[in-house]
Write a structure and sequence with these properties.
There is one protein chain. The protein has a five-stranded parallel sheet with strand order 4-3-5-6-7, with helices on both faces. A five-stranded mixed sheet has the order 12-13-14-15-16. Strands 24-25-26-28-27 form a five-stranded mixed sheet, sandwiched between helices. The relative contact order is 0.08. It is built from 22 helices and 28 strands. It starts with 12 loop residues before the first helix and ends with a helix. The model has no long low-confidence stretch (mean pLDDT about 90). With about 650 residues, the protein is of the alpha/beta class. A hairpin with a 5-residue loop joins strand 22 and strand 23. Helices cover about 40% and strands about 20% of the residues. Among the domains are: about 270 residues, 3-Layer(aba) Sandwich (Rossmann fold); about 180 residues, GMP Synthetase, Chain A, domain 3 (2-Layer Sandwich).
């Protein structure tokens, strides 16, 4: 594959920053809400802030090629820190802010990090707690001064103090900074992002400027993103999607990135800022819809009638209108009236009045949820990608949006399916290597540039649309030889708002069974409305009415699964509701909420045995990790119930 030629004047982020500071000098680059007030920085101001920090880090001894860890919530200062590190010839390594000290220590040690830029005292403490294991760390820079006064500041530095030192020494340091920035090119390392570690330790994914800028350019052109667009930055900074949206596309197009005050105020802040470009995982869209439906149940009879009347009409004509298809005049007029009375106010309430392009990815989204947003006129689409691809592998073009596929290969991306059904891709966005891990690099990326995704799927005949079945390693055979694809069933189950997470078992067995995690918000609200008292998640999870509701959902999914001749053997025969939520702190799911199946199978072996030996309940004890890092245990007697299944379609035929 021949490398794409990138304009040498725009092949690094320091160069893009310099262009934007002139071309979009007075246009907003970053916004942040703090203490209830929005603050804004233009591209010219952002450049000054970034260069001051870069000069200050040079004064502290930052070398070209050093790794600089960035830890904290989404804030303009931390995004600037990434570009400041690049200006110095160093490599930013963003980490998940909710990582445990042990997880954080692993990444810091593996990357050989020298400088850490932390958002607040909590993040500093995590680094200091593991300092004995981290001999390479020389300097820690912190943004929020609260709680830091009595610390030993021999190698601790306030962010604003580092900037002040950089400004004071600019005559001495600017020539060094210019030399460092000028030495960078398209093939210089841009960032190192760590995988979520679904099957083992996280791997450091080395991305070049070519990877990120190419992906940012092609994706911006695909959705016609311009300098007038705006995005809300609230997803983890360590996630590749946030890096592409909040750094890559932001710098390429010059649009504005807005950071919410906190996770709790995100929805309100989204409404205030009026983002035009928005990404969220399915759980976000599910949560918003659940909130809307809960509020409608408490609304007056008239409002409930209006909601049902206009939503029924929206489901009929909303999606065709969004796709540019022909719709009758009366239906159009009725939809316009609905937009005035219901759709418009509803979109404003959920903060999506101005969303021109919306994406969801990571997991499948429920058909009824997807339909709800698109029927309102919100251009919600799905994409398929991964860290190693700089996000983009497949996207849905406008007018070709479907719930059961992830679209067509993204512009410039080649996709092929091998004999086993595994998906491979090749593009300029494909990562350089896994840091200090040549074996994994060779296993994932071949000499011709083809990258193994680990996912199984196929192209539909006629449409060329890509459908994802499951993780290739999780697809297998049941005892009778029929296909076992757990994610296919799990995604169907998670379409119900009262089911947060599920894990399906059945590989090599006669039947499939499932663990269920209830959604405490949705089920708790149901309990309140029905005057059902409960003291804990565990108590609510074991309630007979909750079991009855979950059982009805599984039986509904079984009917759907039975219709698929290839996967009809994956119907659920028995299930239980777990006595605790699957938690990243307990290692059961990743920070991006991907299930760690092997860990769950080992940790809950007694419950799995109960699912298959006919038991009606199992007494179990589970180790848990509290927020402060202490370990404890939960004892419970978990009920197991049988579920009705449907005759397989192939057998009936």
């Amino acid at each position: 594959m021949t490398a794409t030629v990138i304009d040498s004047d725009l092949d690094t982020f320091p160069k893009l920053l310099a262009r934007n500071a002139v071309k979009f000098a007075n246009a907003p680059a970053y916004r942040e809400k703090e203490f209830g007030i929005w603050q804004s920085w233009t591209w010219s101001q952002a450049k000054d802030e970034i260069e001051a920090l870069a000069l200050g880090m040079l004064a502290l001894g930052l070398n070209a090629g050093d790794h600089v860890a960035i830890i904290g919530r989404n804030r303009p200062y931390l995004y600037w820190a990434m570009t400041a590190a690049q200006c110095c010839g160093a490599i930013p390594v963003p980490l998940y802010e909710d990582s445990s000290p042990e997880e954080m220590a692993y990444v810091l040690k593996h990357a050989g990090v020298r400088f850490v830029i932390a958002g607040d005292q909590e993040q500093v403490d995590k680094v200091l707690d593991a300092q004995d294991e981290l001999p390479t760390i020389d300097e820690i820079i912190y943004l929020d001064k609260r709680g830091m006064r009595k610390y030993d500041h021999k190698h601790l530095n306030a962010y604003e103090d580092v900037q002040a030192e950089g400004r004071a020494g600019h005559y001495r340091l600017e020539p060094i900074l210019k030399e460092r920035s000028a030495a960078l090119n398209a093939d210089s390392t841009c960032v190192m992002l760590y995988t979520s570690g679904t099957t083992g330790r996280p791997k450091g994914v080395v991305m070049s400027n070519r990877n990120i800028i190419w992906a940012s350019t092609s994706s911006s052109e695909f959705d016609a993103l311009t300098q007038t667009d705006s995005v809300m930055a609230y997803l983890p900074m360590a996630w590749v999607g946030d890096f592409i949206f909040s750094i890559g596309q932001c710098y390429w197009t010059g649009f504005c990135v807005s950071c919410p005050e906190s996770a709790e105020t995100m929805s309100t802040d989204l409404r205030e800022i009026g983002a035009t470009y928005f990404f969220a995982p399915p759980r976000f869209f599910e949560g918003v819809l659940t909130s809307v439906m809960i509020r409608m149940k408490d609304a007056s009879a008239l409002k409930q009638w209006m909601f049902k009347y206009f939503m029924d009409h929206a489901k009929k004509v909303g999606r065709p209108l969004l796709d540019g298809k022909s719709v009758g005049l009366l239906d159009r007029l009725k939809y316009m009236l609905g937009d005035i009375l219901m759709y418009g106010p509803l979109k404003n309430t959920i903060g999506m009045s101005r969303v021109r392009v919306g994406y969801t990815a990571g997991e499948a989204i429920g058909p009824e949820i997807f339909e709800f947003y698109r029927s309102l006129g919100i251009n919600l689409k799905q994409l398929y990608g991964q860290t190693e691809a700089s996000v983009y592998i497949a996207q849905q073009p406008d007018g070709e949006v479907r719930i059961d596929t992830v679209g067509v290969p993204s512009p410039g991306v080649e996709v092929r399916i091998d004999e086993s059904g595994e998906i491979f891709y090749r593009s300029e966005g494909a990562f350089v290597e896994y840091y200090n891990n040549p074996e994994s690099t060779a296993d994932t990326k071949d000499p011709e540039g083809w990258v193994a995704t680990g996912d199984a799927g196929f192209f539909e005949e006629g449409t060329g649309q890509l459908r994802i079945i499951d993780r290739a390693k999780d697809v297998g055979k049941m005892a009778d030889g029929s296909m076992f694809a757990p994610k296919f069933v799990e995604n169907k189950l998670k379409f119900f708002p009262d089911i947060l997470e599920t894990v399906v078992f059945g590989l090599g067995r006669e039947t499939c069974t499932a663990f269920i995690n209830i959604d405490l918000t949705a089920v708790g609200n149901w309990a309140e409305r029905n005057n059902i008292a409960y003291a804990s998640y565990q108590e609510l999870a074991g309630h007979p009415e909750v079991y009855k509701s979950i059982k009805s959902h599984i039986e509904e999914v079984n009917k759907s699964v039975a219709e698929d001749a290839m996967l009809s053997g994956c119907q659920i025969y028995r299930f239980l509701i777990l006595h605790k939520e699957l938690d990243p702190d307990d290692g059961e799911i990743t920070r991006t909420r991907k299930v760690r199946r092997r860990i769950i199978e080992d940790k809950y072996a007694d419950l799995i045995e109960g699912l298959y030996n006919g038991a009606t309940e199992v007494a179990t004890e589970t180790e848990v990790t509290y927020e402060d890092g202490r370990k404890g245990s939960i004892k419970a007697t978990v009920k197991i119930e049988d579920v009705k299944t449907v005759a397989r379609k192939a057998q009936a035929a």
